[in-house]
Specification:
Number of domains: 3
Number of helices: 16
Largest sheet: 4 strands, parallel
Strand content: 5-15%
Distance between the termini: 28 Å
Helix content: 40-55%
Order of helices and strands: EEHHHHEHEHEHEHHHEEHHEHEHHH
Strand order of the largest sheet: 4-3-5-6
Structural class: alpha/beta
């Protein structure tokens, strides 16, 4: 299903709704059990109790999202869920306790809160165990076939088989087309003696992905695909399949016509106004919360080598305009003493001891909040690059300049989905995530990326 242009698995949306309701219901159950054997009558209908329940449900959903419990692999089983559920509830308990301290009217009592956490955890574990059981017996599988047997079909095959979400695929096979080199396992080819609809119906296929690389000079079965759609079989192009499953837009499949006439790429006034408001509120809030951390970081950076605390560097922003980005210095002062820009990399010897820590925790990025408040950046967007590398990448990577149609961000889709990159090939992979964000950007997607950023900081993933 699509929410604000972003593809969300139906089972994920289902789990989020059910577990939100379970967390909310647990507040009432906890209050009832707490005073079950007491002469004191506790009324869960008192003023603010409903709001307290909503607050606990929101804190629980946020904490579980931050620990990746809505992106967990069904193949890792219930054990992995338990390992992440325990710290996620610890975070939820801390958040709700802080809320009670700030807003005493919402306080529901320590005894009740303890029961609420136990009840909510039990209900959520039971729900997850049931979902895992459905996954094991194949009730959540979707039977999928591919039209084509070449390079693109094989790439889609890999993506479908490596999909580890709750709603995974059962690969039925491939319908070969004339004049295309077969690059998929021969034993997965489907005989095409009758019409396409009959073949797919015989194998109980739910969805067919059109993955033919070159349709010119090929007898393309348009009418048969239309018949498939009319018979209830979902028909989807490989570009849309990859976008849905990998949250990427593949550069090799792009052409100007698709960019012009396709959906997305919303740059309306309402979208810009909403994003700017979101940036200002989130940036101001995080600046206040992290001020003590930034003060301590400044002290440690100065004490290590008595060098500058901050460094300013030219970056390319929206519409190819340049600005000076502000970050905590994490490298030696002479990191580029020869004057030639260099790609940063993992285990970079130029990184200082303090710099290594603040880079892993993303603290070095915090001063960019000032760039956001000035209007040079957004909180969420493509990672800004230096003009030297932008010139190189615009020459070597098709459509690279599209990422400059919006403001760069402190965090973004590529930063939370892809490991540290230090080459043209890595930039190409990150660009495909950036293009997905540029096409489908919304406040909903911004919120999801912020939650994923928390997960990156907690588990040290991405960059």
């Amino acid at each position: 299903m699509r929410i604000a242009n972003h593809h969300v698995p139906q089972i994920t949306a289902f789990l989020l709704c059910v577990e939100f309701l379970e967390a909310f219901a647990s507040t009432y159950l906890g209050a009832m059990l707490r005073f079950l054997d007491s002469n004191y009558h506790y009324s869960p209908h008192r003023e603010f109790f409903f709001i307290s329940g909503i607050a606990f449900a929101v804190a629980t959903a946020f904490s579980m999202s931050a620990f990746g419990l809505y992106r967990i692999s069904y193949r890792k089983g219930i054990r992995n869920t338990l390992l992440r559920l325990i710290p996620s509830f610890a975070l939820s308990f801390s958040l709700i306790t802080l809320l009670f301290y700030l807003l005493p009217d919402l306080y529901i009592g320590r005894g009740i809160l303890g029961l609420v956490v136990l009840i909510a955890a039990s209900m959520i574990i039971g729900t997850r165990a049931l979902i895992f059981k459905f996954s094991e017996v194949g009730l959540l599988k979707s039977r999928i076939a591919f039209l084509g047997c070449g390079k693109l079909a094989n790439e889609c095959r890999t993506l479908a088989l490596n999909n580890t979400s709750y709603h995974h695929y059962e690969l039925v096979g491939f319908i070969p087309t004339e004049g295309e080199e077969c690059l998929v396992p021969v034993n997965e080819l489907l005989t095409n003696n009758s019409d396409l609809t009959t073949v797919l119906k015989q194998h109980n296929v739910h969805e067919i992905v059109v993955s033919v690389m070159n349709r010119r000079g090929v007898q393309f079965p348009l009418q048969e695909l239309l018949d498939c759609k009319l018979h209830g079989i979902k028909v989807i192009e490989s570009t849309a399949f990859i976008e849905r499953e990998a949250c990427q837009i593949r550069v090799e499949s792009l052409h100007p016509g698709w960019l012009i006439f396709g959906e997305g790429f919303n740059q309306s006034f309402l979208r810009k106004f909403g994003k700017q408001t979101f940036d200002l509120i989130i940036s101001a809030l995080i600046f206040v919360i992290t001020s003590p951390i930034m003060l301590l970081t400044s002290i440690f950076i100065y004490l290590e080598d008595r060098g500058p605390i901050f460094f300013r560097q030219e970056r390319v922003g929206k519409n190819n305009s340049t600005y000076m980005v502000l970050k905590f210095r994490s490298m030696r002062s002479d990191a580029e003493k020869n004057g030639v820009p260099q790609w940063a990399c993992n285990n970079d010897p130029r990184v200082t001891r303090v710099g290594n820590i603040i880079r892993k925790l993303r603290i070095d990025e915090l001063p960019q909040i000032i760039n956001v408040l000035y209007g040079d950046m957004s909180f969420v967007g493509p990672r800004p690059e230096r003009p030297y590398f932008v010139d190189q990448l615009c020459t070597e990577v098709p459509f690279y300049n599209l990422r400059h149609s919006i403001k760069p961000g402190i965090t973004g889709m590529a930063q939370v989905r892809y490991a540290y990159g230090a080459s043209v090939e890595d930039s190409l992979q990150k660009l495909q995530y950036d293009l997905y964000y540029v096409k489908n950007n919304s406040l909903f997607l911004d919120a999801l990326i912020l939650i994923d950023t928390v997960q990156v900081v907690l588990f040290g993933k991405g960059r």
